[in-house]
Structure formats: C-alpha cells, structure tokens
# Entry
Amino acid sequence: MNLLSLRNIVFSYNGKRLFHQFSLDIPEGDFLGIIGPNGSGKTTLLKLIAGILKPSKGEVTVSGENLLCLRPKERGKLIGYMPQESHFLWNFSVREIVLMGRYPHHKRFEREGKDDFEIADWAMRMTNTFDLKERGINNISTGERQRVVLARVLTQKPKILLLDEVTSHLDIGQATDILRILQELNRWKKITCLFSVHDMNMAMLVAKRILLLSKGKAVACDIPEKVIQPELIKEAYDVTPIIGTHPELNIPWVFLNL
Amino acid sequence: MRLKDNPFLILIPLIFLAFLSLFFGSAGMDREIIFKIRLPRVLLAIFAGGVLSFVGATLQGLLENPLCDPYILGIASGATFGISLSFLFGSFSYFFIPIFAFAFSLISLFFVYILATISGRIQKLSLILSGVLVSFLFSSLSILVMVLSKKQLSQIIYLIMGNLSLLFTPLTLWIFLLTVVISIFLLFLLFSYAKELNILATGEEQAVSLGVDITNLTKVVFIISSLLVGFVVSFVGSISFVGLVVPHLARLFFGFDHRKLLPASFLFGASLLLVSDIFARTIAPVELPLSVITAIFGVPFFLYLLRKLK
# Structure
C-alpha cells in the first residue's frame, strides 16, 4: 500500500482553479523531487499534504487514513513541513526552537524530558547547528536559520518530510549540505521525502523520482531519466534545454541555452 | 538559582511592595485604614496589574504583534461605556458600577466575536480590526453619555482612567473574591496554551504543521482574555500602559518562552501597579488617576531598561 495518496484533489486559489482531479501516490521510502515553473502548484501541493490548506474536493490519505480525520497532533507526528522562509517574531534561542518540534509528542502540560533533549541534540548535530544552540534565532545567518528549522522538523520525528524550496536562499555549499542530510535521512532512517526545487539539477542529485508540474497538472512523475526529456520540459517551461549526463554520478543533467 | 530560570523570584519584591503599600501613606498606621482602605487597594493592584500584564503577554503572542495591549479586543471600551451609562442613570453606587461595566464588556465581546467570525472561523487580522471598530463605537458612545451627564464628568474620568479606591461592602467583597477565584482559573487555562503561543510566534503555517489547532486556539484565547479584561476594567477602570509594556519587561529578564513569560508578566505587572498606586496617592494633594502615573513613570523606566539590557 502507498504511504501517501492524493485522490482526485480539487483546489482553487483566490477563485482560480489550480488543481483539478489531481492524484498522486507516494510509496514508503520515496524521495520525490517536485519541479515546475512558478505558479505550477509546487508549494500548494506540499501545503495540501501538510494540512495547511484543505482541498475543496478529494482526499489526502496517509497509510489509508484521511488526513482531515486525524487529530492535529497525530498529523504532526506523521508529517513534518519546512516552509520556504521562516520569520521569527521573538528571538527564541536555537535550542528552544528545535525543542518545539517535540510538541506533537507531548500532552498539554508535559515538559521536555531527557529523551526530548537527546532527540533535539541529535537533530542539531545532524544539521550542524549544535554549536549555535544558545544563539538567538534572529542573530544567525539565513543559511543557519534554514538548517535550524530543518533540525526542528527532524525533532518532530515525522515519517514524511515535506520541504518547500529548501535550497532557495542558500549558496551551493549550504544547499548541497542540506541535500546530503536529506539523502542520509532517506537512506538510513527510511524517511519519505518530498521536496520542491527551482533548480532541476539539484533535484536530480538526490531524488529517486521527479514530479514535473505545470499549471496544476502532473506532466510526468517517474525516475529522473524518464522525466528529464526535452519535450516534457518544453511542455512545462516553454524552453528547450540541452540534456547531458553528470560525468560522475551518471544522472541526467540539464544545460541551458539562450 | 539564576533569576532567569525562575520567574517566581519576583514574588520577593512583590510581597515587600505589598507590605510597603499597606503601611505607607498620608493617614499613618491606623488599623482601620490599613484593613479597610489600604488592603483592598493592595489586592486590587495585584489583581489588575497581574491580569492585565498576563493578558497583554498572551495577546502579543497570539496576535503576533508586540504592540498589542489587552484593550485591543475592544472589551475595555464596552466596560467604559457601562460605567458612563450607570452615571447617566444616576445609579451611582459601588455595587452597580462593576455590574454595569461587566455586562457591557460582555456585549462588546459578543459584538467583536460576531464581527470577527468569517465563514465560521475567527481570523487574527479580523479580530484586531473588529476590536478596534467596537472600541471606537463604544468610546464615542461613552463620550456622548458623558456630555449628557456633564456634572459628574471628573468622577467618570477617575473611574475610567484607573482607580483603586473601591470601598468594599461585604457584598462587593464577596463578588470581588469570587471574581478573583474565577480569574485564577481562567489564567490557568490561558497558561495551558503557553506551548502553542511559543510555536505560533515562529509562524502560523509551521504551527499548523506541528499540530497546533489555530482556529480553536484563537477562539479560546480571545474569549478568556476578554472575560479577564472585563473583570479588571469593571473593578478598576482602564489602566493603560502596564498590559503593553510589562510583557516586554518580562521578556528582557526571562526570555520568550511563554511558560516563564506569562507568570513573570503577572508578577511584574502586579509589582508595577503597586508602586504606581503608592505614587498615585502620595505625590500630589489629590489622588491622581493611575494611568497617568503608570505612563509618566513607566515610560522613562522602560526606556532606561531597554537601553541598559539590549
């Protein structure tokens, strides 16, 4: 059975229909890169799965259970969501931010215990933010902040990880760091990952499958070799790329031309 | 133990101030005065200062706006209108004023609730806008009533601008004590949402994805905060400044975690109002409205702290 399924999703945004009868199946352990032009619905799709937006028709199911029937905290234990940008009103310390990830696992008055601190420490080491833990979240760089938010999502211990434009504000060093972390999590912790990126090559580096979206429709959803085809990319982006091969990793690589 | 970890250490200065307030004043150390006049003042100051600051901190967290004060929900203006109206009807008694004030704060709560509900949900922006609208409506109605009952204008201003000189009869004392018990329960309920308020301050979408039920949170916090503000304003009028500034003061000392911030705000607020009341009734030949004191002395004090600690 699929871990995550979207069935006949209908969703409109400001009166404009974005998704119509959209369906998608994600098996457990999948690593799906979502690409597509601006406005194609990448972020909306992730938000629908995260429970932040609700479809007007159709359903999202996790292990066969309708997402809307789950209690919010139950959903929080299953699905972690990392937004494209994060703003923090109060200057919480990095450690406080990361520990908030334990929220769905706690009862109302439960305080953090030894286990929670251990999980938070693990997540901070994993994302290389452990040395920042006493710093204020607003006193660190954008790249560091992005990693702290990832640490919090990891502290949540979700089965499904959703990441919206993870690499958008990062330089190539920071971006590859994050992708490496995600790959490790997918490989060793069997966490199912869905992430959206603008740079297709970034997606190719780690994704097992690629979903190419255009105007709320799946142009293709398959292994990278089958999705990265000139005619499919032309259909979605209206540009004709040159497609080569990564010299070391032997994966398709997209080159642009003016 | 470091001060930073335990907000309850503020209890020490608070108790000191309470005793100072009991024994300090122009009328000396008379037993009657201490128990009949100063003790109620001390209790009201702790109650009002504490509740307003606690609610202020809660609302700044919920509405993600550091400029919010407890009156942003429009409740105080309803109570103010109730107070003015009770003057107009001539039912000038210490029994009726709080009752009238509270009844009208419930009415304004109801108005704000109806206005802010859009397709079954209360959204934060609509909550702020509705609060401001209802505030304007009731404020202008209050002014209208004050103009109509012009002879007691200064008395009304005393009551509206914050005043702790409520003389308790046995009946009002019981009502006050009952209010205090209910308020403690409501404060505890608000406190139980401290973790949600922490998470909310890191973004609404992230809060939803972590499993915070924002619709429910907004509704519950709005209703409880409104009731608490209604209680306070009904007894002592709209004391300004504390609810806005004390939460920031508490954040300077105790950080941003609402589990520490909320009790710290209560204790700081109570202490600040005790000090203000001592000033209000001793520095001038006539008793000054509390809001005047809280702002005149609070602003420089707060600016000093802000510069020193940041």
Q: What stands out?
A: Strands of chain B lie at 117-118, 121-122. The interface with chain A takes residues 64, 66, 192, 195, 198-199, 201-203, 205-206, 208-213, 251, 255-257 of chain B (CB under 8 Å). DSSP finds 13 helices and two strands in chain B. The longest helix of chain B spans residues 31-62.
